[in-house]
Amino acid sequence: MSIKRYCYSCDLKDDSKLIAEYKAYHAEGKAWPEITKSIKDAGIVDMQIYLTGNRMFMIMEVNDTFNPDKKAAMDAQNPKVQEWENLMWDYQQELPWAEKGEKWISLDKIFQL
Q1: Which residues, other chains included, contact 59 with Cβ-Cβ below 8 Å and sequence gap of 6+?
Q2: In the 8-state DSSP scheme, what is residue 21?
């Protein structure tokens, strides 16, 4: 099975208290089990989120079964995922170039060694 990588970016609201709360939700073992299950069920084999200031970068490694549109459809039908996403909007904000309501924006690879 081959592995593919997706990289995304999103901003948090630039507020140290909110950033600390967001980090607490994402600390090891703290993310809701329904969320981690939905991630794994979609074919995401590894996901990491990095933070610098209030800008985040998410790196996902996915298997052959992963399809971003299918994942979005699965999430839309999952009430617990929708609850999580609504909660995360309390902390996240759109990037300046994002479409209305769009959180995570795909990064364009511009260099590879």
Answers
A1: 5, 6, 7, 46, 47, 48, 49, 50
A2: H
CA distances from 14 to 55, 57, 93 (A): 9, 15, 9
The pTM of this model reads 0.90
Q: How far is CA 84 from the centre of its chain?
A: 11
Residues 48, 36: Cα–Cα separation, whole Å: 12
The two three-digit tokens of residue 1, written as one number: 């099975």
Give per-residue pLDDT as tens, 49-92. 999 999 999 999 999 999 999 999 999 999 999 999 999 999 99
The distance of Cα 18 from the centroid of its chain, to the nearest Å, equals: 17
Give helix 33-41 / helix 68-76 axis angle, nearest 10°: 140
Amino acid, single-letter form, for residue 74: M
Q: 66, 43 in Cβ contact below 8 A? A: yes
CA distance 43 to 56: 22
CA dist., res. 39 & res. 41, Å (int): 6
